[in-house]
Structures are given as C-alpha cells and as structure tokens.
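Weekly sync notes, structure subgroup
Attendees: PM, AL, DS (notes)

Item 1: joint prediction request from the bench team. They want all two components modeled as one assembly rather than separately. Inputs as received:
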Amino acid sequence: MFVRYCPTVTAADQNTPPADDAPFRLTMSPGFEGWLSENDTSLAFALPPSKLVFVGRDLDNRIAVYERTFDKTMGLTADGTHRIYMGGRYQTWRFDDVPLTSEAADSGFDRCFAPRQVWVTGNINVHDVAIDPRGGPGNGVTLVATRFSCLARPSDEFGFEPIWQPPFVKSFRPGDRCHLNGLAMGSDGPAYVTAVGATDDLERWRTERRGGGIAVHVPTNEIVATGLSMPHSPRLHNGVLYLTHSGDGSLIRVDPQAGTWEEIGFAPGFLRGLAFVGKYAIVGSSMPREGDLYSGLPLDDRLAEANQRPRLGLFVFDLDTGAIAEWLFVEGAFREIFDVITLPGVRRPMAYGTVGRELADSVWIDSSTSAGASVGRP
Amino acid sequence: MRAIHTARLLDFEATNDDGFVEWLERTNQTIVISHSNKLLTFGRNSSGRLAIDQVLFDRVTGLCVGVDRSLCVASHHELWRMTDALAPGESSPTGADRWMMCRTARFVGGVKPADPIALADDVWFVSVALSAVCSLDDTFSAKVQWVPPFISEVRPEMRCRLTGLGARDGVPAVVTSASTSDVAGGWNEHRASGGVLIDLVTGEVLAAGLSMPHSPRWHAGAWWLVQAGTGEIGCIDDGRFVPVARIDGFARGLTISDGVAAVGGSGSRWDELVEGLPVGDRLRATGARPASGVFLFDLKSGSRIGELRLDGTAREVADVVVLADTRNVELSGPHGRSAQDWTTFPTDSVP
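Output from the run, pasted for the record:
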C-alpha cells in the first residue's frame, strides 16, 4: 500500500466566476484545463444540496463552468453523452440534449441538457443512479433507494419498484437498515453495491461507520469486500471494480474473487463520486464536519497525519501511479459532492433547470416539420 | 326548494345544489376539474355530503382519464400522469376510495398543451402555441402529428388557437379551433364566430361559424362540443351546431357520462375572457349571474339537473372529467409535503 498526497494548494491558477450568482467559486490545479483538453472530456458533478455543475472548456480551452439549481442533487449518470439522469430529494429527473441556440453555439457550447421527464418517487433517499444496459421500464434507470434499503426502478405506476435487497436485509420494509448507497452497473445489470454496514436493524449502520462497510455482488448476493469505512460509488472500469473508501479518504481497487482490496491513493476528503476517463479516475471529495456523519472516521487520523485539511472538490487520480494528477476545488457555502460523471467528446455542456420560467417558455421544434402534416395513427 | 351546501376553500367558495350530489351519488362518480392553478375534486363523504379536495399545480390547461384509470394533467409546460395509490377496498387517510398521486411528468416547454388524450404509451394534445396536434417527444418539445390545412408554417405563434382534441374509439379524430387564421395571434380577431371543427384524417371542416368551440367529444354517434363564446352545449348534425343547453359563462371542459353533460363554466361579467363574445354581451345585457363552476345537463331534455358554482378570485375552469366507480378522490400534487412524504411500491415485486 502506498499513499500519495495532494499537491500543496497554492494561490489558484485561475478563478472562474461561476454562472449566475451562485455562492461558490472554483479553483484548480495548474494543469487542469490542459488535462480536460488532452482527455477531450467535460465533467458534471452533483453539489448537494442544490447544484448541478458542468465543467467544460471554452473556445480558448479555458475552463468554463455552468450550473443549475435543483431540489437536492444526488446520484448522476450519463447514458452515452446525450442523456443524463439525476436523483433528487423526492424526484428523479431525465435530461436529454436539446437543440442549442445559435448564440450558445457561437459561445462554444456543444451540448444542452434539458429536463424532459421527472418521476416523483417520494423521499426514498435516492443515492446512486445507474442505467441497466439491458433496458427495461424507464430505459433501465436503476436507483439506490437508501431509505428502503433496496435497488429500485422509477415507475409510471408507483413511487418506485423495488428490484433487489441485500441478503442481510431480511424483509422488505421502510427504513435505512444498512445505508445501501452505491451501485456499479455491469453489462448484465446491477453488479455490485456498497453499504455502510451488513446490518438489518433500523439505523444500526451508524455504529458500523468506522469499518463495517461492505461491497456485495448483486447476482450472487456474495459479500466481496469487508472492513471498509463508509464505502461509496462502486464502479466497473475496464472490468475492474473500483470504489471510494470514503471514511478512509482513499480510492480502492477490489478483487471480488479473492475478497481483497488495495488502496490506489489517498486524497484529503471524504471521497465519494467516481468516474473514469482513460487511465484517470475522477473522484469527488467532501468535507467532514466535527460531529457529523463523516467525522470520527479513519479519515480524521489520516488528515492529521498528513497535516491536511479536507477539501471540497474533485481529485483526478492517475490509476497507474496512484498519484493525484489534477484537482478542482469548490469554495463557498457547500460541503459535499455526491457524484461526478464524464461527458467524453463534449467540450462545453450547458443545461436548463426547473427553476423559473426558462424551461416553461422554451420551444424546440423540428425545423423539418412541414405544415399540412397528415395525421399519424397512435 | 333546494338545499345549498357551501364549502369555503382558501381562495374560492363552492356552492352546490342537491342535484349535483345526487347525480354523483346515483352514478357513483367523482368529478375532477382544473380551476386555474389547481385540480379540484368533487366527491361524496361517508355521510353522502359533498367532499372537496384540491391540489396546487402550475396552471392546468386540460385533463383526461386514461384507459388504465390514470389521470393525465396538462399543466402549463408539463404533462403529468397521476395514478391511484390504493388497492381495491383500501381508503386514503381522509377516507377517499381513490388516492391519485403524481407519478411522472414530461416537460413539453412552451408549446402550451391543452385537451390531452392519454393513449397506451403516449399523450396527444393540441399545442395552442404551435397550432398543431402534438405528441410526446424526447428531442423536441413535442412531436408534431398534424397541422390544420390552413396553417402554412409551424411556429410558436398561436395563429388559429386550437382549443380541443376529440377522440373516437380511443383514436384522436377531430380538433376544435377558435379560427382558421394563419397569422401570429390572428385568432383573436375571430373569437365571436370564426371557430371550426375539423376532421383530423380528411382535413375536412365538419362545422364552421362557431364561437370559441372547445372540448369535442364523440357521443351517441355525433360530435358534441361547447361553444365557449355563446355558453352553448350541443352537437354537430350535418355541419350544423344544434344547441341543447346553455350557461351564462365561458363554456369550456365537457364530459358526457350516463347521458349527462358535465360542463365547465368560467368568467365574470367584466372578464376579458368573455369580452366581445355573445356570452359577454348577454351577461352585461341581462345581469344574469355569471356561470362559474360545473353544470350538469340531461342531454335528452336539455334540462339542468345540478350545478356547483365557484366564486372567488380564480375563475377559470379549463376542463372537467369524471372518475367512474369512485365515491371520493384524494389528491397528492407534484410538489409539497405529500409528494415527499408518501410513496407507493408494488408488493408483488418486493425482493
């Protein structure tokens, strides 16, 4: 096991004023903009409680930030680069790309996401959101319904449809019994989940935060990793299972067959939210606060040992070396990042929100629509 | 003499006669209407008295009941699907026998949807802004399915003002339009008598000379509709509008059930809604009480068998539907506590 430390944070290379008048600003590592260009990607991250933030680059390859406000921003997932799903307080949204205005296109925007559908799930405490490539109702969208300790599908008929529970949760009933929070989707559907404890009593997982965390293989119900502190964000990348060992401030690689895991690297923060581009892992980092759910964990000791304070933002790990290659910090009133996604090939994304009249007043019509179109039969 | 039951709710007052509740009781139905930015339900409580529930939406422009007993709500730029949270025999916390909850919405932007028809996997509606019949689409605000023959270009300009969409045997079949204007906002010049009923398949004008026609409904082998501008309810017979009943208000929203027409009425005497329309002239000339609310007419005799009047600041009834086999409905809206605090799941899919 080895540990890499975050590069010393110096004066920000560039401060990008965020869109609108949001109470946060971003600072980044000197190479962050170049890294975005080299990897030809943009990023989006969920900054609870209220912001969905897009990070792209303008026509001069400088960082370009776009943010929107929602009622709680939780799990994020992209279906290709034209569709996004996001979980909220009691809603889950589907965003699709919509035609760009010519002004936006001239400014270098090359993708615009607009909310096109919402499911009212009720407050089931949605954490991760992922897409089952096999499809199904709602295009295979799968939610981690933490308040019901299950995997679920959004539904046009019900608040949600439960599809799986961990083996140690013995019956289906309301309540956060194990803090099921993360979902790694595989090519054959849900593959791995993370939970804070292998517990079945209401809120009992809170006593398991320091080392009772696990990863479970969904198809076989087998526990494939144990001894973790508040694991989150399991993801399969090139066939390898990665997850954030949040309470330890580290990114880990799991060998499910052997039931072992190894640390890839450390970063100063409660790591949660994980996405990949090439040999890089992009990890979200939140700030524990004394007495909250994210404090009193091994992370506290590692931060003290490294003489570091926790950071809110994104860390980019080089998977080959475990080193932190780049970082992007969020400064302001926020303390948490829940999830991060990549949008490969998209240079500068923008989005509509649900607040205000903008979405309500926008009309996108197919310019090829001809007047006098004859009736189609439904 | 009629006994009057009055319920006061936030910003309006509902007053109904016995006939209104008697019809609901006899047919075991509940009426749901859109009232400006609310859905209102009129059912009966356990002692047979009127029971009202209400829930806030964005401005509601149309309603329909799906074949699966779901409720489709066209709400400004959203199309909501509401489903019943109760299993047969269950009751809601307030004792209703149906509990309609918002489950999902599609965002259609500024196309201004109205008079939706919920199909198996789609919703068709008139886009008032585009002057076209549309369905749901993922890429564009809506998929244009049909454009009136007199509209030369699909633009969000509210040219002719499509007002209603009628289905026959579950298939969208006709539209009502306030005019045949092809210029932006042009419908406004033709409110008094420029309205038409058009066959979607042939493009044929089935009736002309109508005043703000709305809510075309197929019943007993004929197209029935309301002329909002005259307040008349009637059917089309060989291109002619045959009035059967009339209200002293802007008639919009029509459901025919059990031989009875449930009609929505809107507007006050000096409302711009009725300005320049025959019904507005009549209201001012006669001093008649403006008909705002829901009115029930026996279609055979034309006689009014019941009414529920709504007084208050909100006066626009956009649509009226009935839910069959329902004593009373509780509503949970798209936002607020009930949307957060309640959820439903199928017990048979529980792992």
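Discussion: Chain B touches chain A through 57 residues (CB under 8 Å).
Action: AL to compare against the crosslinking data before next sync.
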